[in-house]
Write a structure and sequence with these properties.
There is one protein chain. It contains one helix and 15 strands. It has 234 residues and is mainly β. The chain has a 15-stranded mixed beta sheet with strand order 8-7-6-5-4-3-2-1-15-14-13-12-11-10-9, with helices on one face. A hairpin with a 3-residue loop joins strand 7 and strand 8. The longest helix has 7 residues. The relative contact order is 0.17.
C-alpha cells in the first residue's frame, strides 16, 4: 500500500524575511523506492523549479525530471538517469537547445542535488553510522553548480563530505522534532558548510542554515498518513 508525506518549507532570508517556499510530497512505493514531487519558488531570483525524483531502497538516485523557469520564462527541462557507471541527461535548454550528456562515473552517485531543500535532507542517508569517524566522503550528482540552482538544468558531479554532529531536539513552526544534526561540506573553499537537522526514517528536512545565501530553510507544515515512531510533538 502506498503511503505519503506532504509538507512545506519556508525560505527565510536573514534580512528580508520569507523570500521563497517549497511544497513537497514524498511517496513510499511498495517496492522500497521513494518518489519526491516538489515545487520550489525563489522570489528574489525569480526562479520556479518543478521536479520529480526517485531513489532506490538504498537511497541512491534512480531517475529525475527537473523543469526550470527564471523571471517567468522557460529556462530548461531535463531528464536524468543514474547507473553504476554513468549519469545520462537529456536536456532542452532555452539558450542552447537540445543537449545529450553521458557522464562516466566509477559508481552510482550516492546523492542527487536536484535543488529542492527536501533533497538535502535525503543526502544524509548516505552517512554510515557504523563506520568510525564523524566525517565521510560522498559522490554527489547535481543539476546545477550554482548555489540557487539557477542554471541548466544539466548534469554534473562533485565530491562532498558529510559530518555528523549528534542528536538534537528542534522546534520549528511544523512542531517539535527529534533530529539528527549534520554538516554538508562542499568542494568550494569559499562556501561554508550547510548545517541541517533531519528527522526520522524518511529523512525529513526540519531546518537547514546556509550562510552563503544568508538564509535558513524551515519546515512550516507536515502531514502524513504514516504512523511515525518519533513524529512531531506539539
Amino acid at each position: 500500500m502506498l503511503s505519503h508525506i506532504c509538507g512545506r518549507i519556508s525560505y527565510l532570508h536573514q534580512e528580508h524575511g520569507e523570500t521563497g517556499r517549497e511544497w513537497f510530497r514524498i511517496t513510499r512505493n511498495t517496492d522500497g523506492t521513494r518518489t519526491l514531487r516538489a515545487t520550489c519558488e525563489m522570489d528574489t531570483e525569480g526562479i520556479l523549479r518543478d521536479l520529480v525524483y526517485t531513489i532506490g531502497a538504498d537511497w541512491k538516485p534512480l531517475d529525475s525530471f527537473v523543469r526550470l523557469h527564471s523571471s517567468g520564462q522557460f529556462s530548461g527541462s531535463s531528464w536524468f538517469r543514474f547507473s553504476d557507471t554513468s549519469i545520462v541527461c537529456e536536456a532542452e535548454l532555452a539558450e542552447a537547445g537540445r543537449i545529450s550528456q553521458i557522464i562516466s562515473t566509477s559508481e552510482r552517485p550516492h546523492v542527487f542535488a536536484a535543488h529542492a531543500l527536501t533533497c538535502d535532507g535525503w543526502q544524509v542517508s548516505q552517512f554510515d553510522h557504523g563506520r568510525p569517524g564523524k566525517r565521510q566522503p560522498i559522490l554527489s550528482a547535481h543539476c546545477s553548480p550554482q548555489a540557487d540552482g539557477g542554471s541548466g538544468p544539466l548534469g554534473g558531479v562533485n565530491p562532498k563530505e558529510l559530518e555528523y554532529l549528534g542528536r538534537a531536539e528542534k522546534v520549528v513552526p511544523a512542531g517539535t522534532f527529534d533530529t539528527e544534526h549534520y554538516l554538508i561540506h562542499t568542494p568550494r573553499e569559499d562556501w561554508p558548510p550547510l548545517e541541517l537537522w533531519v528527522h526520522g526514517e524518511d529523512r525529513i528536512l526540519v531546518q537547514l542554515d546556509w550562510p552563503v545565501l544568508k538564509s535558513s530553510y524551515v519546515l512550516t507544515e507536515l502531514t502524513s498518513d504514516i504512523s511515525q515512531r518519533s513524529g512531531p510533538r506539539s
